Amino acid sequence: MLLGVEAWVVVVLAVALFVGALVQGTVGLGLGLVAAPVASLLEPQLVPEMMLWLAMLMASQTMLTEHRGTDWRGLGWALPSRVVGTVVGVWVVAVASDRLIGIAVGVMVLTSVLLTVRTVTLPVNRLTLPVAGLVSGVTGTATSIGGPPLAILYQHHRPVVLRPTLAAYFAIGAALSLVGLGLAGQLRVDVFLLAALLSPVLLLGIVASVPVRRLLPRELVRTGVLTVCATSALVLLAVSVF
Q1: Cα atoms in the Cβ-side hemisphere of radius 13 Å centred on 57
Q2: Angle at the Cα of 145 from the Cα atoms of 143 and 146, rounded to 5 degrees
Q3: Residue 222: pLDDT above 70?
Q4: How far is CA 225 from the centre of its chain?
Q5: Residue 106: its pLDDT value, please?
Q6: Residue of 213, 225, 226 whose CA lies nearest to 25
Q7: Cβ-count burial of 91 within 10 angstroms (0-12 exposed, 13-18 middle, 19+ buried)?
Q8: Spatial separation of the C-alpha atoms in residues 144 and 139, rounded to whole Å
Q9: What is the per-residue pLDDT across 27-52, written as a single tens digit (0 to 9) for each?
Q10: Cα-based torsion angle of the residue sequence 207, 36, 93, 80 in order, rounded to the nearest 10 degrees
Q11: 3 pLDDT exceeds 70?
Q12: What long-range pairs does 97-102 form, CB within 8 A, spacing at least 24?
């Protein structure tokens, strides 16, 4: 047992986090989409807190190293509504069961996959950005998966803009969610320590993503990501519902 979690579960979580970090380092998001369903399936009590700590850490690293392309003007419209969504998400965590949160994670992942497959194109403006911020505030705080709403808006931007913009949003958004959960008494020391224990895996994933980003077409990587995410979400939904 490591911090109350079976050793084999920690190993599986580490693998999922490595894959998620590799994917996010390559295409701009993926840590939560890949790892959150696995964490929810194996140890529901770790979601959303553990994933929020790790998401904030990885996003902060990307934000610092690729900050020049960040669309701060767009984030200025999305982040205020993210605060409102965070309040709603904290309430969801306080009143919802692990089963319901598990279903929410699965539905969120599947929805984002379907929207991405259909390549929905939405304008990035003063209407869509606050809506995306509100939705991601709720889902990010309640399920640790808050990236898809904003990612869908920015999916057609150049990678040098997409990656740092999403990273800045993830870092600030995860910090807001953690503050909200802390004020509501929903944070646990053992979960934080487990996140710290697993954090080096993120660095390995980031390092591995550099050559992958150069060698593989982004569309090929995205196809693999969507397959993994959809499979994980379907398994999680099946376990949560039945």
Answers
A1: 21
A2: 115
A3: no
A4: 13
A5: 85
A6: 213
A7: middle
A8: 7
A9: 888 898 889 889 988 998 898 999 99
A10: 50
A11: yes
A12: 98/40, 98/44, 98/45, 99/44, 99/240, 100/240, 101/40, 101/44, 101/47, 101/48, 101/142, 101/143, 102/40, 102/41, 102/44, 102/47, 102/236, 102/237, 102/239, 102/240
Residue bearing tokens 């009143």: 95
The residue count of the chain comes to 242
Extract the tokens encoding 107. Answer: 């539905």
**Angle, vertex CA 121, rays to CA 116 and CA 127, nearest 5:** 115
What does residue 2 show for φ and ψ, rounded to 5 degrees? -125, 110
3-state SS class at 5 = strand
pTM above 0.85, yes or no: yes
- Tokens 């869908």 belong to 152
